[in-house]
Amino acid sequence: MGERLSLISGMSAEDGGMPEVTSFGDMSLSPETLAAVEALGWRAPTPVQRRAIPPGLEGRDIVGIAQTGTGKTGAFLLPVLEGAVPGEGLQALVLCPTRELAQQVLGDAVALSRGRTLRCAAIVGGVGYGPQRAALDTGTELIAATPGRFIDHMRRGQADLARVRYLVLDEADRMLDMGFRPQIESVLRKVPRKRQTMLFSATMPHGVHALSLQVTRDPVRIEVAPSGTTAEGIDERVYSVKPGKKEDLLVRLLSDPDWNHVLVFTRTKRGADMLLTRLQREGISVDVMHSDRQMRHRVRALDRFATGGVRVLVATDIAQRGLDVEGISHVVNYDIPLDPGDYVHRIGRTARAGAAGTAVSFLTAPDLAYLKSIELLLGRTLERIHLPEFDYAGTPVEQRDEGARRRHPRSARGFGSKSADSLSPEELERLLGRNS
Ligand code: AMP
After folding, report:
1. DSSP letter, residue 227
2. pLDDT tens per residue, range 16-36
3. pLDDT tens digits for 349-385?
4. Which pairs with CB-CB distance under 8 Å and at least 24 residues apart come from 57-60?
5. Residue 383, number of CB atoms within 10 A of its CB
6. Considering the entire predicted model, what is its pTM?
7. How far apart are the CA of 354 and the centre of ligand 1, in A?
8. Residue nearest atom 21 of ligand 1, based on CA coordinates
């Protein structure tokens, strides 16, 4: 990931001129924290961790452009956990857009504070208030929360923020997209002005920039993997498919046992449920996750998927960000996302922290414009695969492309396009997922 780090232009002077450290051992971390990092198998800091942890440990505010998958959680948690003091009440508040992300931040916080007596909790909607009230009452030192539920507790006078010294806004762009600005404002009115603030966001639209100016003071600014890029090590393919053939194509691809841990994104909840039914009928072990499912079903589905209890998880974009499951072999855009940025986030679920992964997108003729805007954002074209049984007839635009390709077989039109008849029989077999 090292080469993908870039400082926002003109901001290098703002990083405090610190020499870049390349190992956790060089970071003035406590022996307990170093042991916890080692126990997690984190051998070297990721780029965002290298840039954020040293100034974070010095108490500097941080504004980071980094997506999930870059190691940003460790980047903000390590300074916070090093500074928090057991027994001094709530000192660190991490606000997250979704329950799933808050749970994952909590999981990392627990793992990274191993061997210390810090207490950590998540305060999220969809579950009972009692244990959360107890966590607040007993002075839990670190809380990862979704803004809505946290405000509920604040209004009931159950959250004492007077000792908060660390405020983290995680996935700030997502929180603003979800309309959490008023809740963030309410929290800001209650936390002490003298504090360390870290804001992380995958993108930096105007609203997030304005928020960062409001909440931070003289921040160190870092940027990792600018939006529009995707993680290295991801093999990206686009299958041209007729709308009525999508289910069949997925079933065919799933006949390859290498597709062993597969996350499938659909655009709608209904689409997710229909696909679930079809895959179940095929005897494929599958679960579903979307916002119409009760929280406990979602937690169970995620848990079963994470632990390998099911092979396929079908999800709407609810699972897109923050979902942190090890070893996802394939991400499938069963429906091409309408927002090109979502493509980057979705496929970021595979090939995490250096592992290899495959991202497959199903392209129907009506979605061609959406794919083109993804390619525009990426600045490159994605490899197309045309399997005769599934390929859609082609829109006029694609037919023109094909015509150009035939006339100029080596034309530099940029499409890494492969048609079925240009594949070797072995390659075709492999793509078709036959194992004989
Ligand atoms: P995040 O971007 O914080 O969601 O982290 C993405 C994934 O990378 C998580 O599974 C982390 O456990 C993992 N991770 C974070 N930091 C490191 C590291 N230094 N080395 C290896 N894996 C890491």
Report:
1. B
2. 455 567 899 999 999 999 999
3. 776 555 568 899 999 999 998 898 888 777 678 888 8
4. 57/27, 57/28, 57/29, 57/82, 57/83, 58/16, 59/83, 59/196, 60/16, 60/196, 60/218, 60/219, 60/220
5. 13
6. 0.57
7. 10
8. 42
Tokens of 82: 């090093």
Of 22, 23, 24, 40, which is best to mutate to test ligand 1, by the most ligand atoms within 8 angstroms of its C-beta?
Answer: 40
* Residue 303 CB neighbours (<10 A): 13
Q: Pocket residues for ligand 1 (CB within 6 Å)?
A: 42, 45-46, 49, 68-74, 324, 352-353
Distance (angstroms) between ligand 1 centre and the Cα of 223 equals: 16
Residue whose Cα lies nearest atom 11 of ligand 1: it is 71
CB atoms within 10 A of CB 91: 22
Neighbours of 224 (CB within 10 A): 27
Gap between the Cα atoms of 430 and 274, Å rounded: 27
**CA 408–ligand 1 middle distance (angstroms):** 45
Q: Encode pLDDT of 233-261 as tens digits.
A: 688 899 999 999 999 999 999 998 889 99
Q: For residue range 153-191, list pLDDT tens digits in order.
A: 999 999 999 999 999 999 998 899 888 999 999 999 999
